[in-house]
């Protein structure tokens, strides 16, 4: 079976994964919204091509932050739309386009998907998916542990620490026979892809599908990774790889003095 793990699409953000019906025109312009249109098309065209090449996809796990929310910290200035019902429709179109036989969802961070309500529940209801905060899935004896949030790091060599810590806590929960013992542990949220593990398990953070914009340019320093994860399971074994989108279309040149 083929499993796709998709996370942090941030639908509704100017630089989130945006289906064609919502894309801005985008020409070679200096205005932020026109630049966003160029990025939206580049990301969607790549996404469409890779999904087509990877079909059929048996199961899809949406590991949180499928929508971006109202963006209150930036006054909504980074939003393509602040209407969360429209953001949910974008996410639904993405999931429907993938056309997986089974869809599972994990709640994202309250800032994006709702503090008083869970907007991702609306998406799950619409597409007929199950949804939870921390879930385990099993295929051919391989258990996959999925949760959205994990700690990040502002230093490159510290990015493995939080996933490794997650793995240790999972072992302790499993020793108490409260949580299943997982072969694959998946976390998202940090917008970069890294992995670690040993001969008994794989621990990873997933790439995202939201390019960096105003907040990232002003407040963040680390690199991000655009893409999603594919895991193939057969005869009780698995192979996996990240499908990654290069970011040449976001390249910057110095301005003349």
At a glance:
With 257 residues, the chain is of the alpha/beta class.
Describe this structure in words.
- The structure is a single chain.
- The chain is of the alpha/beta class.
- It has a single domain (2-246), classed as Purple Acid Phosphatase, chain A, domain 2 (4-Layer Sandwich), CATH 3.60.21.10.
- Helices cover 28% and strands 23% of the residues.
- The chain has 6 helices and 11 strands.
- The chain has helices at residues 32-54, 84-98, 110-113, 119-127, 161-175, 214-219, and strands spanning 2-6, 59-62, 102-106, 130-132, 134-139, 142-147, 184-187, 194-197, 202-205, 226-234, 237-245.
- The strands form 2 sheets. The chain has a 6-stranded mixed beta sheet. A 5-stranded mixed beta sheet has the order 5-6-7-9-8, with helices on one face.
- The longest helix has 23 residues, at 32-54.
- The protein is globular and about 60 Å long.
Give structural attributes:
257 residues; Purple Acid Phosphatase, chain A, domain 2; 6-stranded mixed beta sheet; 5-stranded mixed beta sheet; 11 strands
Provide the fold topology.
Elements: E1 2-6, H1 32-54, E2 59-62, H2 84-98, E3 102-106, H3 110-113, H4 119-127, E4 130-132, E5 134-139, E6 142-147, H5 161-175, E7 184-187, E8 194-197, E9 202-205, H6 214-219, E10 226-234, E11 237-245
Parallel strand pairs: 1-2, 2-3, 3-4, 6-7, 7-9
Antiparallel strand pairs: 1-10, 5-6, 8-9, 10-11
Helix pairs in contact: 2-4
- Ends distance: 56 Å
| Name of the CATH architecture | 4-Layer Sandwich
Number of helices: 6
Strand composition percent: 15-25%
Number of domains: 1
Helix content: 25-40%
Write down the CATH class.
Answer: Alpha Beta
CATH superfamily: Metallo-dependent phosphatases
């Amino acid at each position: 079976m083929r499993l796709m793990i998709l996370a942090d699409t941030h639908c509704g953000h100017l630089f989130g994964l945006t289906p064609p019906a919502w894309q801005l025109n985008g020409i070679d312009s200096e205005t932020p919204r026109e630049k966003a249109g160029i990025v939206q098309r580049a990301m969607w065209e790549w996404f469409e091509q890779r999904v087509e090449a990877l079909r059929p996809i048996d199961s899809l796990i949406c590991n949180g932050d499928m929508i971006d929310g109202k963006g209150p910290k930036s006054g909504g200035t980074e939003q393509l739309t602040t209407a969360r019902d429209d953001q949910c429709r974008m996410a639904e179109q993405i999931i429907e386009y993938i056309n997986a036989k089974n869809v599972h969802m994990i709640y994202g961070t309250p800032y994006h998907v709702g503090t008083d309500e869970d907007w991702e529940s609306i998406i799950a209801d619409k597409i007929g998916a199950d949804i939870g905060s921390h879930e385990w899935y099993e295929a051919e004896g391989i258990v996959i542990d999925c949760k959205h949030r994990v700690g990040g790091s502002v230093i490159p060599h510290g990015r493995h620490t939080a996933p490794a810590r997650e793995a240790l806590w999972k072992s302790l929960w499993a020793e108490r026979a409260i949580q299943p013992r997982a072969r694959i542990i998946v976390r998202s949220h940090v917008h970069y892809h890294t992995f670690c593990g040993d001969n008994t398990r794989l621990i990873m953070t997933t790439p995202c599908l939201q390019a960096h914009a105003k907040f990232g340019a002003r407040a963040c320093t680390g690199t991000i990774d655009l893409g999603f994860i594919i895991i193939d399971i057969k005869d009780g074994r698995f192979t996996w790889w990240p499908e990654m989108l290069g970011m040449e279309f976001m390249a910057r040149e110095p301005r003349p003095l």
